[in-house]
Amino acid sequence: MTSTEWARRALAHRGDEVTLRLVDGAIAWLEIDDPAHHNALSEGLLLALRSRFAEIVQRPEIKVVVLVGRDDVFLMGGTEAGLSEVADGGTRSSDLSFLCGGLLCCEVPVIAAMQGQAEGAGLCFGLYADVVVLAEEGAYSVSSMDYGLTPGLGATFILREQLGGPLATEMMYLGRSYTGRELRDRGVSLAVRPMAEVRAEALAIARRLAEKPREALIVLKRELAGRKLAALPRVVDAEIEMRRRVLASPEARDQIRSRVEKASLGRGAAAASAGSPPVRGARELISPASTPAAAEVDAPAPIARQPVRLRAKETALQPLSSAPIAPQRVSLSPKHRAAQTASADQGSPAIDVRSRRAVRS
User: How far is Cα 76 from Cα 171, in angstroms, rounded to an integer?
Assistant: First the structure.
Protein backbone atom coordinates (compact mmCIF):
# COMPACT_ATOMS: atom_id res chain seq x y z
CA MET A 1 0.00 0.00 0.00
CA THR A 2 1.42 3.36 -1.02
CA SER A 3 1.60 6.43 1.20
CA THR A 4 -1.27 7.98 -0.77
CA GLU A 5 -3.44 4.91 -0.17
CA TRP A 6 -2.62 5.00 3.56
CA ALA A 7 -3.65 8.67 3.65
CA ARG A 8 -6.92 7.95 1.83
CA ARG A 9 -7.81 5.11 4.18
CA ALA A 10 -6.92 7.22 7.22
CA LEU A 11 -9.49 9.82 6.24
CA ALA A 12 -12.19 7.16 6.31
CA HIS A 13 -10.96 5.47 9.51
CA ARG A 14 -13.39 5.66 12.43
CA GLY A 15 -11.44 3.70 15.06
CA ASP A 16 -10.81 5.07 18.55
CA GLU A 17 -7.24 3.78 18.99
CA VAL A 18 -6.05 7.40 19.23
CA THR A 19 -8.12 10.21 20.78
CA LEU A 20 -7.59 13.95 20.44
CA ARG A 21 -8.49 16.54 23.07
CA LEU A 22 -7.83 20.25 22.99
CA VAL A 23 -6.16 21.67 26.11
CA ASP A 24 -6.00 25.40 26.93
CA GLY A 25 -7.32 26.12 23.44
CA ALA A 26 -3.92 25.54 21.77
CA ILE A 27 -2.53 22.13 22.83
CA ALA A 28 -3.53 18.91 21.04
CA TRP A 29 -3.44 16.07 23.58
CA LEU A 30 -3.19 12.80 21.63
CA GLU A 31 -3.62 9.59 23.61
CA ILE A 32 -2.78 6.18 22.14
CA ASP A 33 -4.94 3.48 23.75
CA ASP A 34 -5.30 0.21 21.85
CA PRO A 35 -5.52 -2.53 24.52
CA ALA A 36 -6.53 -5.16 21.97
CA HIS A 37 -3.02 -4.98 20.48
CA HIS A 38 -1.15 -3.85 23.61
CA ASN A 39 -0.43 -0.53 21.81
CA ALA A 40 1.48 -2.35 19.08
CA LEU A 41 1.64 -0.72 15.66
CA SER A 42 -1.39 -2.45 14.18
CA GLU A 43 -2.93 -1.26 10.94
CA GLY A 44 -5.85 0.30 12.81
CA LEU A 45 -3.55 2.22 15.16
CA LEU A 46 -1.49 3.53 12.22
CA LEU A 47 -4.62 4.70 10.45
CA ALA A 48 -5.88 6.38 13.63
CA LEU A 49 -2.56 8.21 14.12
CA ARG A 50 -2.60 9.43 10.52
CA SER A 51 -6.22 10.52 10.89
CA ARG A 52 -5.58 12.53 14.06
CA PHE A 53 -2.55 14.32 12.58
CA ALA A 54 -4.55 15.12 9.44
CA GLU A 55 -7.14 16.70 11.74
CA ILE A 56 -4.44 18.73 13.49
CA VAL A 57 -3.41 20.23 10.13
CA GLN A 58 -6.94 21.61 9.79
CA ARG A 59 -6.89 23.22 13.26
CA PRO A 60 -4.98 26.54 13.01
CA GLU A 61 -5.50 27.20 16.73
CA ILE A 62 -3.19 24.30 17.65
CA LYS A 63 0.37 25.37 18.51
CA VAL A 64 1.81 22.16 19.98
CA VAL A 65 1.02 18.44 20.16
CA VAL A 66 1.51 16.14 23.17
CA LEU A 67 1.60 12.43 22.34
CA VAL A 68 1.01 9.99 25.19
CA GLY A 69 0.31 6.26 25.52
CA ARG A 70 -1.26 4.03 28.15
CA ASP A 71 0.00 4.06 31.74
CA ASP A 72 2.12 0.94 31.18
CA VAL A 73 2.92 1.16 27.46
CA PHE A 74 3.73 4.13 25.24
CA LEU A 75 4.04 2.30 21.92
CA MET A 76 5.29 -1.12 20.81
CA GLY A 77 6.63 -2.42 17.51
CA GLY A 78 4.94 -4.57 14.89
CA THR A 79 2.16 -7.00 15.74
CA GLU A 80 2.73 -10.75 15.92
CA ALA A 81 0.58 -11.23 12.84
CA GLY A 82 2.75 -8.82 10.87
CA LEU A 83 5.99 -10.50 11.95
CA SER A 84 4.63 -13.95 11.10
CA GLU A 85 3.70 -12.77 7.63
CA VAL A 86 7.21 -11.40 7.13
CA ALA A 87 8.70 -14.76 8.19
CA ASP A 88 6.46 -16.55 5.68
CA GLY A 89 7.75 -14.38 2.86
CA GLY A 90 4.78 -12.05 2.74
CA THR A 91 4.95 -8.48 1.52
CA ARG A 92 3.20 -6.85 4.45
CA SER A 93 4.37 -3.24 4.62
CA SER A 94 4.00 -0.54 7.22
CA ASP A 95 3.32 3.09 6.48
CA LEU A 96 7.04 3.92 6.33
CA SER A 97 6.62 7.50 5.23
CA PHE A 98 4.45 8.32 8.25
CA LEU A 99 6.30 6.21 10.84
CA CYS A 100 9.62 7.81 9.87
CA GLY A 101 8.47 11.30 9.00
CA GLY A 102 4.97 11.84 10.38
CA LEU A 103 6.05 13.66 13.55
CA LEU A 104 8.79 15.54 11.70
CA CYS A 105 6.33 16.70 9.03
CA CYS A 106 3.78 17.96 11.56
CA GLU A 107 4.12 21.72 11.20
CA VAL A 108 3.98 22.43 14.94
CA PRO A 109 6.24 20.95 17.66
CA VAL A 110 5.43 17.46 18.95
CA ILE A 111 6.22 16.34 22.52
CA ALA A 112 6.38 12.59 23.18
CA ALA A 113 5.57 11.69 26.80
CA MET A 114 7.00 8.16 26.76
CA GLN A 115 5.74 7.16 30.19
CA GLY A 116 5.59 3.39 29.82
CA GLN A 117 7.31 0.76 27.73
CA ALA A 118 8.46 1.61 24.19
CA GLU A 119 9.97 -1.02 21.93
CA GLY A 120 11.37 -1.21 18.41
CA ALA A 121 9.34 0.77 15.91
CA GLY A 122 7.31 2.27 18.76
CA LEU A 123 10.46 3.64 20.41
CA CYS A 124 11.79 5.00 17.11
CA PHE A 125 8.45 6.66 16.31
CA GLY A 126 8.48 8.49 19.65
CA LEU A 127 12.10 9.57 19.21
CA TYR A 128 11.14 11.48 16.04
CA ALA A 129 9.27 13.95 18.28
CA ASP A 130 10.79 17.40 18.77
CA VAL A 131 10.85 17.00 22.56
CA VAL A 132 10.99 13.63 24.33
CA VAL A 133 10.33 12.90 28.01
CA LEU A 134 11.27 9.44 29.31
CA ALA A 135 10.32 7.73 32.58
CA GLU A 136 12.96 6.63 35.08
CA GLU A 137 11.09 3.34 35.47
CA GLY A 138 10.19 3.01 31.77
CA ALA A 139 11.60 0.21 29.60
CA TYR A 140 13.09 1.10 26.21
CA SER A 141 14.49 -1.38 23.70
CA VAL A 142 15.17 -2.22 20.07
CA SER A 143 14.74 -5.99 19.89
CA SER A 144 14.66 -6.55 16.13
CA MET A 145 17.97 -8.47 16.18
CA ASP A 146 16.51 -10.88 18.77
CA TYR A 147 13.86 -11.70 16.17
CA GLY A 148 16.53 -12.23 13.52
CA LEU A 149 15.79 -8.92 11.78
CA THR A 150 17.96 -5.87 11.25
CA PRO A 151 16.53 -2.56 12.54
CA GLY A 152 14.15 -0.54 10.38
CA LEU A 153 12.12 2.69 10.32
CA GLY A 154 15.28 4.78 10.37
CA ALA A 155 16.41 3.25 13.68
CA THR A 156 20.05 3.29 12.59
CA PHE A 157 19.74 7.08 12.28
CA ILE A 158 17.30 8.29 14.94
CA LEU A 159 18.73 6.19 17.79
CA ARG A 160 22.19 7.68 17.21
CA GLU A 161 20.70 11.16 16.82
CA GLN A 162 18.75 11.07 20.08
CA LEU A 163 20.71 8.66 22.31
CA GLY A 164 24.27 8.89 21.04
CA GLY A 165 26.35 6.63 18.78
CA PRO A 166 27.91 4.06 21.13
CA LEU A 167 24.73 3.51 23.15
CA ALA A 168 22.59 3.25 19.98
CA THR A 169 24.95 0.65 18.52
CA GLU A 170 24.83 -1.37 21.74
CA MET A 171 21.04 -1.25 21.88
CA MET A 172 20.68 -2.47 18.29
CA TYR A 173 23.12 -5.36 18.67
CA LEU A 174 22.11 -6.59 22.14
CA GLY A 175 18.36 -6.02 21.92
CA ARG A 176 18.04 -5.73 25.69
CA SER A 177 15.80 -3.33 27.55
CA TYR A 178 17.11 -0.19 29.27
CA THR A 179 15.30 1.81 31.93
CA GLY A 180 15.10 5.56 31.62
CA ARG A 181 17.34 5.81 34.67
CA GLU A 182 19.99 3.67 32.91
CA LEU A 183 19.82 5.80 29.79
CA ARG A 184 20.29 8.97 31.83
CA ASP A 185 23.27 7.42 33.63
CA ARG A 186 24.74 6.54 30.23
CA GLY A 187 24.67 10.20 29.22
CA VAL A 188 21.41 10.54 27.29
CA SER A 189 20.45 14.21 27.23
CA LEU A 190 16.69 13.67 26.89
CA ALA A 191 14.49 14.66 29.82
CA VAL A 192 14.03 11.75 32.26
CA ARG A 193 11.49 12.06 35.09
CA PRO A 194 9.83 9.72 37.60
CA MET A 195 7.01 7.89 35.84
CA ALA A 196 4.31 9.70 37.80
CA GLU A 197 5.66 13.06 36.59
CA VAL A 198 6.20 12.38 32.87
CA ARG A 199 2.83 13.62 31.64
CA ALA A 200 2.87 16.64 33.91
CA GLU A 201 6.33 17.55 32.61
CA ALA A 202 5.19 17.18 28.99
CA LEU A 203 2.15 19.36 29.63
CA ALA A 204 4.26 22.02 31.36
CA ILE A 205 6.59 22.14 28.33
CA ALA A 206 3.61 22.34 25.98
CA ARG A 207 2.15 25.26 27.89
CA ARG A 208 5.44 27.16 27.64
CA LEU A 209 5.54 26.58 23.89
CA ALA A 210 1.89 27.62 23.54
CA GLU A 211 2.81 31.06 24.89
CA LYS A 212 4.92 31.72 21.77
CA PRO A 213 3.72 32.94 18.36
CA ARG A 214 2.53 30.05 16.21
CA GLU A 215 4.41 31.26 13.14
CA ALA A 216 7.70 31.36 15.05
CA LEU A 217 7.14 27.76 16.21
CA ILE A 218 6.38 26.64 12.65
CA VAL A 219 9.45 28.32 11.11
CA LEU A 220 11.83 26.86 13.72
CA LYS A 221 10.24 23.39 13.44
CA ARG A 222 10.58 23.44 9.65
CA GLU A 223 14.30 24.21 9.86
CA LEU A 224 15.22 21.70 12.59
CA ALA A 225 13.05 18.84 11.32
CA GLY A 226 14.10 19.48 7.73
CA ARG A 227 17.67 18.45 8.51
CA LYS A 228 16.51 15.05 9.73
CA LEU A 229 14.08 14.59 6.85
CA ALA A 230 16.89 15.23 4.39
CA ALA A 231 18.96 12.37 5.86
CA LEU A 232 16.18 9.79 6.10
CA PRO A 233 15.67 8.60 2.48
CA ARG A 234 19.19 7.18 2.18
CA VAL A 235 18.97 5.61 5.66
CA VAL A 236 15.60 3.95 5.01
CA ASP A 237 16.72 2.60 1.63
CA ALA A 238 19.81 1.06 3.28
CA GLU A 239 17.69 -0.54 6.03
CA ILE A 240 15.26 -2.02 3.49
CA GLU A 241 18.17 -3.56 1.59
CA MET A 242 19.59 -5.03 4.83
CA ARG A 243 16.26 -6.68 5.61
CA ARG A 244 15.91 -8.03 2.10
CA ARG A 245 19.26 -9.79 2.44
CA VAL A 246 18.48 -11.11 5.93
CA LEU A 247 15.08 -12.51 4.95
CA ALA A 248 16.70 -14.51 2.17
CA SER A 249 18.10 -16.70 4.97
CA PRO A 250 15.92 -19.62 6.19
CA GLU A 251 17.67 -19.38 9.57
CA ALA A 252 16.48 -15.80 10.03
CA ARG A 253 12.89 -16.67 9.07
CA ASP A 254 12.89 -19.63 11.48
CA GLN A 255 14.10 -17.38 14.31
CA ILE A 256 11.32 -14.90 13.64
CA ARG A 257 8.70 -17.67 13.86
CA SER A 258 10.25 -19.03 17.05
CA ARG A 259 10.33 -15.64 18.77
CA VAL A 260 6.77 -14.80 17.74
CA GLU A 261 5.56 -18.13 19.14
CA LYS A 262 7.37 -17.59 22.44
CA ALA A 263 6.04 -14.04 22.71
CA SER A 264 2.50 -15.24 22.06
CA LEU A 265 2.74 -17.97 24.70
CA GLY A 266 4.25 -15.56 27.21
CA ARG A 267 1.53 -13.00 26.64
CA GLY A 268 -1.18 -15.62 27.06
CA ALA A 269 0.28 -16.77 30.37
CA ALA A 270 0.60 -13.20 31.59
CA ALA A 271 -3.01 -12.42 30.65
CA ALA A 272 -4.25 -15.51 32.51
CA SER A 273 -2.51 -14.51 35.73
CA ALA A 274 -2.96 -10.74 35.52
CA GLY A 275 -5.15 -8.83 37.93
CA SER A 276 -7.25 -5.78 37.20
CA PRO A 277 -5.74 -3.43 34.59
CA PRO A 278 -4.39 -0.09 35.83
CA VAL A 279 -6.75 2.87 35.85
CA ARG A 280 -6.43 4.78 32.61
CA GLY A 281 -4.31 7.61 33.41
CA ALA A 282 -3.48 11.06 34.42
CA ARG A 283 -6.10 13.00 32.53
CA GLU A 284 -6.56 15.01 35.70
CA LEU A 285 -3.56 16.98 34.42
CA ILE A 286 -5.89 18.54 31.87
CA SER A 287 -7.93 21.28 33.44
CA PRO A 288 -11.68 20.71 32.87
CA ALA A 289 -12.13 24.48 32.99
CA SER A 290 -9.84 24.93 29.99
CA THR A 291 -11.34 22.20 27.81
CA PRO A 292 -14.88 20.81 27.94
CA ALA A 293 -13.69 17.61 26.24
CA ALA A 294 -11.52 16.76 29.21
CA ALA A 295 -14.58 16.68 31.43
CA GLU A 296 -16.02 13.84 29.38
CA VAL A 297 -13.54 11.32 30.75
CA ASP A 298 -15.33 8.41 32.39
CA ALA A 299 -14.74 7.90 36.09
CA PRO A 300 -13.06 4.63 37.07
CA ALA A 301 -15.54 1.86 37.76
CA PRO A 302 -16.03 1.12 41.46
CA ILE A 303 -14.10 -1.84 42.79
CA ALA A 304 -16.39 -4.75 43.61
CA ARG A 305 -16.25 -5.95 47.18
CA GLN A 306 -14.92 -9.47 47.50
CA PRO A 307 -15.65 -11.77 50.47
CA VAL A 308 -12.51 -12.74 52.37
CA ARG A 309 -12.27 -16.03 54.25
CA LEU A 310 -10.13 -15.68 57.39
CA ARG A 311 -8.34 -18.33 59.40
CA ALA A 312 -9.37 -18.82 63.00
CA LYS A 313 -6.42 -16.79 64.33
CA GLU A 314 -7.15 -13.87 62.00
CA THR A 315 -10.85 -13.95 62.88
CA ALA A 316 -10.00 -13.48 66.53
CA LEU A 317 -8.14 -10.26 65.67
CA GLN A 318 -11.04 -8.67 63.77
CA PRO A 319 -13.46 -6.20 65.48
CA LEU A 320 -16.65 -7.85 66.59
CA SER A 321 -20.04 -6.93 65.25
CA SER A 322 -21.32 -3.46 66.13
CA ALA A 323 -24.65 -4.95 67.27
CA PRO A 324 -25.57 -4.14 70.90
CA ILE A 325 -23.99 -6.47 73.42
CA ALA A 326 -25.91 -7.57 76.48
CA PRO A 327 -24.39 -6.18 79.71
CA GLN A 328 -22.34 -8.69 81.60
CA ARG A 329 -21.43 -8.72 85.28
CA VAL A 330 -17.72 -8.80 85.91
CA SER A 331 -16.45 -10.02 89.22
CA LEU A 332 -13.23 -8.40 90.34
CA SER A 333 -10.97 -9.68 93.01
CA PRO A 334 -10.64 -7.52 96.17
CA LYS A 335 -7.16 -6.47 95.01
CA HIS A 336 -8.46 -5.22 91.65
CA ARG A 337 -11.43 -3.35 93.24
CA ALA A 338 -9.09 -1.55 95.57
CA ALA A 339 -6.75 -0.50 92.74
CA GLN A 340 -9.63 0.74 90.56
CA THR A 341 -11.15 2.80 93.40
CA ALA A 342 -7.80 4.39 94.28
CA SER A 343 -7.16 5.63 90.73
CA ALA A 344 -10.68 6.64 89.72
CA ASP A 345 -9.84 10.35 89.84
CA GLN A 346 -6.79 9.92 87.55
CA GLY A 347 -8.56 8.61 84.41
CA SER A 348 -7.40 5.09 85.09
CA PRO A 349 -7.93 2.27 82.55
CA ALA A 350 -11.27 0.51 82.66
CA ILE A 351 -11.94 -2.99 81.41
CA ASP A 352 -13.70 -3.17 78.04
CA VAL A 353 -15.63 -6.42 78.23
CA ARG A 354 -16.04 -6.78 74.48
CA SER A 355 -12.41 -6.42 73.40
CA ARG A 356 -10.68 -7.58 76.64
CA ARG A 357 -8.24 -4.70 76.07
CA ALA A 358 -7.58 -1.70 78.26
CA VAL A 359 -8.95 1.56 76.84
CA ARG A 360 -8.56 5.08 78.24
CA SER A 361 -11.80 6.17 79.91
Answer: 16
